[in-house]
Amino acid sequence: MKYTKEHQLLALIYILFMGFGYPLIRYISDIFNPINTNAIMFLSGGTLLLLVATIKFRHEIIKLKDNLQLFLKLIIIAFLTAGNMYCFIAGLNKTSALAGSIFGILSIPFSTIVAGILYLDEKKKLKELHFIFGSILALIGSFIFVFTGTYKISSNSDFLLGIIFLIGTIIIQAIQNLIVKDITKYLHSIVISSCSSILTSILFFTFSIFSGNINELITAPPNKIIIVLLTGIYSIFVGMFISFFIIQKQGVIILNILKLLIPPTTAIVSYFLLNEKIFLFQSFAIILILIGCIIALKQKKF
Fold first, then answer.
1. Which of 30, 34, 116, 223 is most buried, judged by most C-beta within 10 A?
2. Where is the EamA domain (predicted)?
3. Domain count along the chain
């Protein structure tokens, strides 16, 4: 597959938007209980995407009426998304924005190998020497970035619990990406994103009602709800639609490589918005990550 200028632009948008996304979610993570935060975010983001999908891709939505298997897969994605986002927001709330983006790196080796085993087009990427060399270089840079930065082990029980939540996102994301890879053969990514977002929102609202957390939303001031609603539109558009679209057009492995560029972007944004520190030695790691990703995404072998 040729890596076109359109693919490069999409990759750049994904990296920059995700860099802002982690601090935004970190900022709103303590406004409500994670269940309520997710319920609102997925409702707002999913509703907007569903509106677009209904107007532009109505024929794609009709496919769900005649294919129960596709609808069941969307339900599975919704459950995985619910688990992933609950762990993600709970983890960010107890750690930091940078820690959240860093733990995304740890899912890359596992999901890359599994995708290469299950899908022929992904397997071809794994066999390219420049891809292997660039990926290793980017991973090394990512871990240098981690261990020379603000990410420090803490004995605080809340921090350790946050780490456990973030580890949960690693496992869930790897499984989710494989199912999305399969369903994008039959449905447009915006239909997948919108339907799974609405279903995920229903799940979270159900959990909120049965757990009694819904009272928090009933008595909440409108301005707080609006902040979470707007963040949800942003996050669902970037975190689900764009990532699913990249999987559909470029594959799971390419998405994983792009994720390596998110921690440096997140660190820069967090420095200005959340006052999270950046150390000078991290600049070397950022350069290493950039070089590794450029090499990995090149089309011609050396």
1. 34
2. 9-144, 161-296
3. 1
Burial class (CB in 10 A: 0-12, 13-18, 19+), 31: middle
Contact assessment for residue 52 and residue 281, using Cβ atoms and an 8 Å cutoff: no
- pTM to 2 decimal places: 0.71
Please report whether residue 289 resides in a domain. Answer: yes
* Among 40, 18, 44, 22, CA closest to 31: 40
Q: Mind listing the pLDDT tens digit of every residue in the chain (302 residues)?
A: 555 777 778 888 888 888 787 777 777 878 888 889 989 999 999 999 999 889 888 888 888 877 888 889 999 999 998 888 788 777 877 776 666 666 766 666 667 776 777 777 777 777 788 878 888 888 788 777 766 655 454 555 677 788 788 888 878 887 888 888 888 888 888 899 899 999 999 999 999 999 999 999 999 999 999 999 999 999 888 888 888 888 888 888 888 788 777 777 877 777 777 676 666 677 777 788 878 877 877 755 43
Element (H, E) at 155: none
- Nearest-angstrom CA–CA distance, 299 and 248: 18
Q: Which residue has the tokens 């594959």?
A: 251
Q: Which pair of tokens denotes residue 115? A: 């995708």
Query: Contact 29/89 with Cβ under 8 angstroms?
Result: yes
- Residue 233: exposed, middle, or buried by beta-carbon count in 10 A (0-12, 13-18, 19+)? middle
Show the tokens assigned to 256: 């994983």
- Are the C-beta atoms of residues 84 and 197 closer than 8 Å to each other? no
Expressed as residue numbers, the domain containing 275 is 5-297
| Inside any domain, residue 302 | no
Angle at 108 between CA 278 and CA 136, to 5 degrees: 75
Domain assignment present for 37: yes
**Cα 245 to Cα 293: distance, rounded to the nearest angstrom:** 19
